[in-house]
Specification:
By secondary structure, the chain is mainly alpha-helical. It has helices at 40-46, 49-58, 64-76, 82-90, 97-108, 120-145, 159-168, 174-187, 194-204, 209-220, 228-241, 246-255, 273-289, 292-309, 315-322, 333-354; strands at residues 24-27, 32-35, 38-39. It has a 3-stranded antiparallel sheet. The structure holds coenzyme A. Residues 12, 224-225, 228, 259-266, 309, 311, 314-316 line the site of coenzyme A.
Length: 380
């Protein structure tokens, strides 16, 4: 009897349910995204990133002292071994932040006090540590590559405010802090997206948290996943530089059968609920920071692509016009995605390891028919 239960795999595993999970609920037809059952709109309106991390890692909202404790632990973990800073100084000047982040996160394992442990509590410790460290690496590398000093973290600040301080060298306004905080909440988890699946597959071999997160960062980098936000902004910049008409520019892309980054989604058949918030943020921050042009171009493109292709903007489309208003450079957009998604990746790794079985699917074989015999070299 064959051990294969499904013979035909839909391309890209579309619609395949590959695991059980209690973390993230998505209804792609109704445009619903919820963490532990709580709608993303409620979290974006009322929560903060630290509380969202607690929700993802521990399964429920914290009480006041639990939240205070997690804030304290995250703040205390704002520390990088000098060897990591040294590594950031030594990478080639043209190294892309996402590649630097991937390699640095792998190296963090050498200095992690729980490196050799893979139990639940050790992985919670690593989740907290990695969340603080990833934000620090992204900020520190950006400053190092620009020839600026590495800014010391302020442990009295929130995660978002401390990241912006370490990135820009000045304490952010409360508006900027809240905007980044909402963006981090919106990006924190998204069920079995490509990078989270990669993290779970790695974790399921009983490898370790740092390996799983390194796998995830590699997957997030691609332009079909987290890399889309950078691709969106490059298009906006080109349109701006060439003084092109945004609609004509995108019309040409479609005529050349190119995909427009920031549109379409494997799961959502209606508006991506995260885009609703990011659109409003892009509009408001664009206006208040004197950079409204990015939002104005984006809005025209969105209207056109929706009418022409019936495609909705996804999470990456309006994050691209939001981040520059916070002093975040274009090639940091995807690393900033990781600054948030580390919370979801680690929650999924912990969930995977709490009830683990090796993830090892099958492939439908389409190669030369068996048996296909070996032919000696002089007879080929
Ligand atoms: C997200 C994405 C990878 C989902 O891919 P998918 O589920 O495999 O869907 P497909 O790529 O098979 O697209 C289905 C159809 O819609 C079209 N389409 C999907 N996204 C498109 C886009 N952004 N621009 C233009 N056409 C698009 C495809 O060309 C295809 O058309 P066809 O059937 O005529 O060939 C895809 O929409 C995409 O590449 N978007 C741009 C990148 C992006 O924003 N990624 C971030 C996702 S959060």
């Amino acid at each position: 009897m064959s051990s294969v239960t499904t013979t035909h795999a839909p391309k890209g595993l579309e619609g395949v349910v590959a695991t059980n999970s209690k973390i993230c609920y998505i209804d792609g037809d109704r445009g619903v995204l919820a963490y532990r059952g709580i709608d993303i709109h409620e979290l974006a309106d009322h929560s903060n990133f630290e509380e969202t991390c607690y929700l993802l890692w521990f399964g429920c909202l914290p009480n006041r002292s639990e939240l205070q404790d997690l804030r304290k632990r995250l703040a205390e973990e704002r520390h990088l071994d000098p060897a990591i800073i040294e590594f950031l100084r030594k990478v080639p000047k043209q190294a892309l932040p996402m590649d630097v982040l991937r390699t640095a996160v792998s190296a963090l394992a050498f200095y992690d006090p729980d490196q050799k442990k893979n139990d639940h509590d050790a992985n919670i410790n690593k989740a907290i540590r990695l969340t603080s460290q990833i934000a620090m690496i992204v900020a520190a590398y950006d400053r190092i590559r620009k020839g600026k000093n590495v800014v010391e973290p302020d442990r009295a600040l929130s995660h978002s405010a401390s990241f912006l301080l370490q990135l820009n060298g000045t304490k952010p306004s409360s508006i900027a802090e809240r905007a980044l905080d909402i963006a981090l909440i919106l990006h924190a988890d998204h069920e079995l997206n490509a990078s989270t699946f990669a993290a779970r597959v790695t974790a399921a071999t009983l490898s370790d948290m740092h390996s799983a997160v390194t796998s995830a960062i590699g997957a997030l980098k691609g332009p079909l996943h987290g890399g889309a936000n950078e691709a969106v902004f490059r298009i906006l910049q080109t349109i701006d530089r060439e003084k092109a008409d945004p609609v004509e520019y995108v019309r040409n892309m479609l005529a050349e059968k190119k995909k427009v980054p920031g549109f379409g989604h494997r799961v959502y058949h209606t508006e991506d609920p995260r885009a609703t918030h990011l659109r409003a943020m892009s509009r408001d921050l664009g206006k208040s920071s004197g950079q409204a042009k990015w939002y104005e171009m984006s809005e025209k493109i969105e209207r056109f692509v929706k009418a022409e292709k019936k495609l909705n903007a996804n999470v990456d489309f309006y994050s691209a016009s939001t981040y520059p208003t916070l002093g975040i450079d274009e090639d940091l957009f995807t690393p900033v995605f990781a600054v948030s998604r580390i919370s979801g990746w680690t929650a999924h790794v912990i969930e995977q390891l709490d009830d683990n079985r090796l993830i090892r699917p099958r492939a439908e074989y389409l190669g030369p028919e068996y048996p296909n015999h070996y032919v000696p070299m002089d007879q080929r």
